[in-house]
Amino acid sequence: MSAHYPGLIIVIPLVAAFLVLIGSLLNKRLAFPLAALALLGSLLTSIGLMIRVMRVGVVEYHLAGWAPPVGIAYRVDHLNALVLVAVASVAFINLLGTRPLVADLFEDRLGPFYTLYVLLVTGLLGIVVTGDAFNLYVLLEIAALTGYALVGMGEGRAPLASLNYIFMGTVGASFYLLGIGYLYLVTGTLNMADLAVRLPALYPSKVVVSAFVICLAGLCLKMGFFPLHAWLPNAYSHAPDPVSSLVAPLMTKVMVYVMVRIMLFVFTPAFAFDLMTISGPMVWLAVVAIVAGSFLALSTRRLKRMLTYIVVAEVGYMVGGFWLGNRLGISGAILHIINDAVMTLCVFLTAAAIMARTGSDRIDDMQGLFKKMPVTMAVFVIAGLSIIGVPPTCGFFSKWYLISGALAAGQYGFVGALLLSSLVNLVLFFRIFEIAYFEPFDAHHGDPSAGHGGRVLSEVQEAPLETLAPLVATAALLFALGIYAGDIVSLIIDHAIPVGIL
Amino acid sequence: MDSLLTNFLAKYNYWVYIGLVMIGMYAMIAKRNLVKKIIGMNIVQTAVILFYVSIGAKKGKMLPIIAHGHGDSGHQAVHAIDYINPLPHVLMLTAIVVSVATLGVALALAIKIYRRYGTLEENEIAARINEQ
Fold first, then answer.
1. What does the alpha-carbon distance between residue A54 and residue A266 come to, in Å, rounded to a whole number?
2. Does B97 reside within a domain?
3. Which of A107, A116, A137, A235 counts the highest number of beta carbons within 10 A?
4. Confidence label for A229 from pLDDT (cuts 50, 70 and 90)
5. Could you give the ipTM of this predicted complex?
6. Contact by Cβ (8 Å): A117, A149
7. Within the 117-176 window of chain A, which residues sit less than 8 Å (CB to CB) from chain B?
8. What residues form DSSP beta bridges with A130?
9. Residue in A162, A170, A178 closest to B102 by CB
10. pTM
11. pLDDT tens column, B24-45
């Protein structure tokens, strides 16, 4: 059984996606439990896989028994085992936390919604688990297509935002496919491990250089790296709340993982960091991404939009950290993939809970929320502190690795950008805390008869328990990831990075 | 000049695919009508498919079906060089499915947009959004 974990991890949700649809035709209420079971299945499988990888090292799985390079191989090492657990758990927690909201928003479309949800997670898990460059493209499109459909299910400007997302996403994926085509042209293989063996002999070739550039451009477009981020804020802020809290934490992070995978394990670090002299410019682009993302976040008064700009800045953290090219920086980038997935989930889930209660996404409408929703706001404060980077939350530790990596590489611009962005995040979140801490101005004002009885207005109106429990669990996870950051790096991430990188 | 021309003619498949990508990109950037943009997107995807299909093709070679494979008593060695490469073609079956699915989702969204704003012209949609 455990030998089939790498296959099962996507077969379970893939089959379940169709069962959800069939089940929902029989009875609408079957959709959620089936989806939850499927994602629980992938979560348990991914944890089993993680344990196996930590015990015995790299796990290889050949689909239908065809050995690579002919067949498609799933190859799980420390890097993707870690990302798999993160993806599966974020998707599962979000599924539980958004159930009341989904039941409310998509009352008549529960079946399609959960089918797309589970398919999207299948695609993301597949992208992470696969060891075949073309298979990755197919799974990328599965994840992307379901993502477009889910974003398009929203109200107002969502379909337009989703269509722009399709344009950008399709161009990004086509570029990736083109890059892979160039590599196939010179090597005759699509298996990642096989490519890594055959490519070094061909490094001076212009085809390989073009493949590298085209792949990287496509991936940067898909992950919303700064100058190519235009689709991201609209798509994520107009998407229905349960969708944005799934897509925002996972999509960009998984694409950053793909970049790490392709750069380190298809092109070798020697090629990506030394032969191609783009590390410096990429770090500076990341600096621009971080600064621009932070200030764009500062410029908006809408909660969800602000959070999407923070996502843009966070992508800059990870890309910049990776292109520092040293062990500390790459560790920081990989650790931040995990931490940022959980942080983003936490803020988007709280935002969804808040907006469900206040019915508005304006920051100014959040007055008095600490009294109305004490638990939700407490979680929001923890998530905010983590994004700012206050110990012992996890955000501090990945930032610590990133800054140490930048100092070791002599990239002081990146250090400056990280510190500046922390300060801007501080302003962003404390602005919200300040607004939310005080009662609405006119609640008591000019109404002497109300007296202290005016408190009726600020009665506790917490989010439903079903939402609250996952929220508190996520907040606890933020602390746990912070406290065990050292262990995660020494036990898992250290093994994930090739030995050659110092 | 002569070598450039022969170079161009010898590798015309690549030039065609580059041209198609450019046409598609132009439509996506310059056209205001959403359906035209969607067509542009589809042209880009088709161009990539053409690129893959052309790298598998060989002039004057056979389909990748072994001749006289059945019922032939004598075992002949199969020379891969006599056959076109089927792998890129098979990959493109998947890519074609992906591009059709993308087109479907994009057109469905275009319908949704048309129902909401009553137009598919980008500038008119922007005007409607500003009115609201």
1. 23
2. yes
3. A235
4. confident
5. 0.90
6. no
7. 134, 137-138, 141, 145, 148-149, 152, 157, 159-160, 162-163, 166-167, 170-171, 174
8. A74
9. A170
10. 0.91
11. 999 999 988 999 999 999 999 9
